[in-house]
Write a structure and sequence with these properties.
It is a single chain. The chain has 335 residues and is of the alpha/beta class. It is 49% helix and 20% strand. It contains 14 helices and 12 strands. Helix 2 (52-68) links the parallel strand 1 and strand 2. The model is unreliable at 1-33 (pLDDT under 50).
Length: 335
């Protein structure tokens, strides 16, 4: 055979190897881009394990994980009304989109109005809201107060003790705004958690209480709801067909929600926009998945409160909480 033949063979072999190398390199680059997430995603939950946030987190991620093809590892950091969890997340986790925070936007954002955190309040953002649970005014079944008018009338005679799960809470702001509007006097008493707040009303230890409505609904006939801090009482007779504050008193208070949402470092969004885009896309897919409703109901959630929200909705709510928190700061600090 001629030398030209072997030269052509050598050229073809070398060219094929080079082409294969290029294809392999391209494949690796494509795979590297598409591999996210190639490890579990940590989720900081700034409450105790076993509560409502935990149940909702597990319900949502049980479906979300199939769209991201990964698992979510929760870490519970209760303390200081949620502040501890945020400080841990912002201070100890890398902004690489492999860690998220699952927070209760209402009461936890109010923390920053009461006392600034060690990080900037815009150093993280919420991108995926899963529910909106409105605050309510409620009493125990044996209470002498049968309507919100009874409470207002009594509150104009003397200062009423109002049980709340924590001072910096949307429902706390709701009742303060009602007092400001009507002239009734209210004294907030933090009872450390929803169960103790319900007990404060049922035992008549408190004149009445405020809390997000999910816990009140769960208490059944032991409680009676008198007012809802929302534009509409979507729970109807489960909340005794109580009126809303704006419709009954002609006020313009924004909805006082307990709204749980997934958040992320702003630096992670800036550094890894492709990862953040995937998180948003799959979050929405999860919300639209019929299997999520089943998981939500199994977690003892009240389905009408399941409410998707993206970056825009979360940002608007966060801003409203910061504004109201600054306005009522003296009352929320216990001073």
């Amino acid at each position: 055979m001629s030398n030209n033949y072997w030269e052509r063979r050598s050229f073809l072999k070398t060219g094929a190897a080079a082409a294969g190398g290029l294809m392999l390199g391209a494949g690796m680059s494509s795979q590297a881009w598409a591999a996210y997430p190639d490890q579990n995603i940590d989720v900081i939950i700034p409450t105790r394990e076993g509560g409502g946030a935990d149940r909702l987190f597990r319900a949502f991620t049980s479906v979300w994980k199939k769209y991201l093809n990964t698992n979510f590892e929760p870490g519970f950091f209760p303390g200081a009304s949620g502040r501890v969890g945020y400080e841990v997340y912002m201070g100890k986790y890398k902004p690489d989109a492999y860690s998220l925070i699952f927070g209760n936007m209402g009461p936890e954002v109010l923390n920053w109005a009461v006392k600034e955190p060690s990080f900037g309040v815009d150093d993280y953002l919420y991108f995926g809201r899963v529910d909106t649970d409105p605050g309510v005014v409620f009493v125990g079944a044996e209470s002498k107060f049968k309507s919100i008018d009874d409470i207002i009338a009594e509150g104009k005679k003397r200062k009423l003790n109002v049980g709340t799960s924590r001072l910096a809470h949307p429902a706390s702001i709701g009742i303060l705004a009602l007092g400001e509007h009507t002239g009734a006097q209210f004294n907030l008493v933090p009872l450390s958690g929803g169960k103790k707040t319900v007990a404060g009303a049922v035992t008549l230890e408190m004149d009445f209480c405020v809390l997000t409505s999910g816990s009140v609904i769960a208490a059944g006939d032991a409680c009676r709801t008198l007012l809802v801090f929302n534009d509409e009482n979507v729970a109807g007779d489960k909340l005794n067909n109580a009126p809303t504050m704006n419709s009954y008193f002609g006020t313009k208070l924004p909805p006082m929600f307990s709204a749980r949402a997934f958040g992320i470092h702003k630096a992670a969004v800036d550094a890894h926009p492709d990862r953040f885009e995937l998180l948003q896309k799959t979050f929405k897919q999860t919300f639209d998945d019929p299997g999520y409703k089943d998981a939500f109901l199994k977690s003892k959630g009240f389905w009408p409160y399941s409410n998707y929200g993206g970056i825009k909705e979360c940002a608007e709510f966060k801003a409203a909480m910061l504004e109201l928190g600054a306005r009522y700061r003296p009352f929320l600090t216990g001073k």
